[in-house]
Specification:
The chain is of the alpha/beta class. The chain has six helices and eleven strands. The chain has a five-stranded mixed β-sheet with strand order 5-4-1-6-9, sandwiched between helices. Helix 1 (40-51) crosses helix 3.
Length: 212
């Protein structure tokens, strides 16, 4: 993975856990579900650290920062400044604030992810281009690496009346040549399975009921 200069040049790779969703279908905060006794949000932060990020961010809904006292102290936080803005609000804020050259965006509700996958993901970045995995469902924008300067510049031109979504951002990037696709083998696709509804969590062999 080739470095891309950030605004200060001191940070190469930042990571962002998107934990600001309202979890309507799940009926409880997905970030506080547990895998082997570990909160999902804490697990994703750990995976990012093991994957080699230089700084880690967590995006949460407004007023929710205090709800995660278990997260290590060096993690940086952003709270939604716009209600119901979806995951793009956290991505936008971190793109504006980080000095990193790259941003690894990671949804909180991906309990099967492994650090080896994230390391391989970042290894597909080169020549100023980020990467988005592609499964049989299509592109997976909530587990992707963005080139910060280019993504920031792209967002600055978006109108408030237009769609703001991670999918649109990576689609524009692929068309513009600053995002590349990584076609996953079928055997790797389960690593990107997510928890959206209670049955998916309750039926998972690795889940733990100790989350509050």
């Amino acid at each position: 993975m080739e470095g891309v200069a950030g605004r200060t040049g001191t940070v190469n790779l930042a990571g962002l856990v998107l934990a600001g969703g309202r979890s309507r279908r799940m009926g409880r905060d997905k970030a506080r579900l547990c895998v082997d006794g570990e909160l999902l949000v804490a697990r994703q932060v750990r995976l990012l650290g093991e994957a080699g990020v230089d700084e880690c961010w967590v995006s949460v809904a407004a007023g929710k920062r205090a709800g995660y006292p278990e997260i290590r102290e060096d993690v940086r936080w952003v709270e939604d400044a716009v209600a119901e803005a979806g995951p793009m609000e956290g991505i936008r804020q971190v793109l504006e604030r980080t000095s990193a050259g790259w941003l690894l965006v990671l949804a909180v509700d991906l309990p099967a992810l492994e650090v080896g996958f994230l390391r391989e993901l970042r290894g597909h970045c080169a020549d100023g281009r980020g990467v988005v995995p592609v499964t049989r469902r299509g592109r997976e924008p909530l587990c992707a690496v963005l080139p910060v300067a280019v993504a920031r510049a792209e967002l600055s031109g978006w109108k408030t009346t237009e769609e703001w979504s991670p999918r649109r951002l990576v689609d524009v990037g692929v068309r513009g040549g600053w995002m590349r696709e990584w076609a996953l083998e079928n055997a790797m696709e389960p690593l990107l399975a997510n928890w959206n509804a209670p049955g998916e969590w309750e039926g998972a062999a690795w889940r733990d009921s100790s989350g509050s």
